[in-house]
Amino acid sequence: MEAALEALRLNAEFGVEMPHGGLPKSVELDWMRRLRDAESTLCAARHISLFSYLGQPSFPALNNGAKPPRDAQLAQAIQDVLAYYEQHGITVECPNSVPDRAFYRYLTEELIWEPVPELRLDGISHHFVYEGFQPNDAFDVEHTVAEFFDMLFGGYFAMLESVFYVPSGELVDHPSRVALIDRLCDFAESFDLLVLHDFDMEAIDFPSAEEAVLRGQLHFTGFPNLGQAGIDFRGGVCFRMHLDRYGYWAIEELEMPGVCALEEDGSSTIP
What we know:
Low-confidence stretches: 262-268
Strand order of the largest sheet: 5-6-7-8
Shape: globular
Mean pLDDT: 80
Number of domains: 3
Largest sheet: 4 strands, antiparallel
Order of helices and strands: HHEHHEHEEHHEEEE
Helix content: 25-40%
Strand content: 15-25%
Number of helices: 7
CATH topology of the largest domain: Nuclear Transport Factor 2, Chain: A
CATH class of the largest domain: Alpha Beta
Number of strands: 8
Oligomer: single chain
């Protein structure tokens, strides 16, 4: 109970998401307390630009400068900049495909002016994600759907609720969402094995800045008993997504073969 309360404090005060089951119970509480002390120290420290933190480095600019990197040299130039950052405890992640010129400009002209704590602590690094500066909503929507399929077809049913949208309060405050997750779990647990064969995304639409609808075609097989013939499921799939308060594209409604079917003509009841 005490460890759970400490995890809630970390999340509320610093936005730290603690992984479940990542540490032995005997050291978990002590580790979280040390982490909270480190976060408190960093928050109280004076902040300076990453440019100053790194020792005011000089990188060839794309738009001016004496000798900007040529396109053929950009991949190596990016690796050199990332290696220099890592030497100073700065890691940068780019989860989706970005043109080299755009990523190099981000590293050397945008990220370089971000504020970081001046204080340096052993074992503490600063982590940046390109997408936090240049959001890619379509990529994020696809990523959530991929997570959903990994959980459903990988047998991680207990994690399904993490990809569903909860507008306020707790999941239990939204009976329709709970019913949908229960239906998904009941369906998956009625088979010894579910095998995903193919998912072909057809389109992603954004009715508003906080809404998205992904449509595609899905093919999978459920095996009620291993060693016996399976049941084939094919057809359209539709996800209605909502951008939550943390900037995560979560599932609000879905229709898929075997669970929540589309209309006979292939159309969706989701707007």
